[in-house]
Amino acid sequence: MRSSPILEALFPDIRSKILAVLLLQPEKRWYLTELASRLETQPSSLQREVEALSKAGLLEQTKDGRRVYFKADTNSPVFSDLRGLLEKTVGLIPILKEEVDAFGERIQLAFIYGSTARSEESSESDVDLMIVGDVGLADLVPSLRRAEQRFGRPVNPTVYSSKEFKAKAKNHDHFLATVLRGAKEFVKGNDGELATVAG
Questions:
Q1: For residues 17 and 38, is the Cβ–Cβ distance under 8 A?
Q2: Widest CA span of the chain, in angstroms?
Q3: Which helix (H) or strand (E) holds 184?
Q4: Angle of helix 13-24 relative to helix 43-55, nearest 10 degrees?
Q5: What is the pLDDT of residue 1?
Q6: Domain with CATH 3.30.460.10 in the chain
Q7: Which of 94, 104, 97, 95 is closest to 147 using CA atoms?
Q8: pLDDT average per 10 residues of sequence, the chain (199 residues)
Q9: CATH match for 5-88 among 3.30.310.260, 1.20.1260.10, 3.40.50.300, 1.10.10.10
Q10: Taking a C-beta distance cutoff of 8 angstroms, is the pair 152, 126 a contact?
Q11: Crossing angle, helix 79-88 and helix 137-151, to 10 degrees?
């Protein structure tokens, strides 16, 4: 999960991660062990936080046998505001993934680069997005506009066909070489797939 200087200033680290997972997937119920696994931590480190968030009216607790489940309380008066804040900070990847996945196999690879990938962005920063596949900028515009409306920041896409991407990587294109050396956050694919696509 990506970090955000804004959230770090407002919430303790583990609390912001719990809120991000639960409020960005408000329909899903999580039990403590499952949530701990998702956040790569121990259930004991979450217990106090989920209790505090439940008492504050941000989470709902339900029991099913011996398991206690937690989910976002969508009736909380601050739910939509908090969710909006999370979408604008740590929610970039899930929102972009939703839009990119709609193109199926036409998009081979997609990742954020630049200041956003380094978690150094300001509220005015563009989200620099690299897309590789059989898709044109005109195809992407409606999806990217929807994403921009949700997280309130412009998306600056760079789109290459697989052939063009491989050729530029092979010829050590200055821009692409700089991007590939820098920080990346994958929306689709991973480092291994990037190496394969780049040849």
A1: no
A2: 61
A3: strand 184-188
A4: 70
A5: 55
A6: 92-198
A7: 95
A8: 67 84 88 90 92 94 92 94 81 85 95 86 80 95 89 89 96 95 93 92
A9: 1.10.10.10
A10: no
A11: 130
**Domain 92-198 belongs to what architecture?**
2-Layer Sandwich (3.30)
Amino acid at 48: R
pLDDT of the residue at 147: 87
Find, among 126, 96, 125, 118, the residue nearest to 189 by Cα: 96
Q: Which pTM was predicted?
A: 0.66
Strand runs labelled E in 36-145: 59-64, 67-72, 107-113, 127-133
HEC string for 70-117 = EEECCCCCCHHHHHHHHHHCCCHHHHHHHHHHCCHHHEEEEEEECCCC
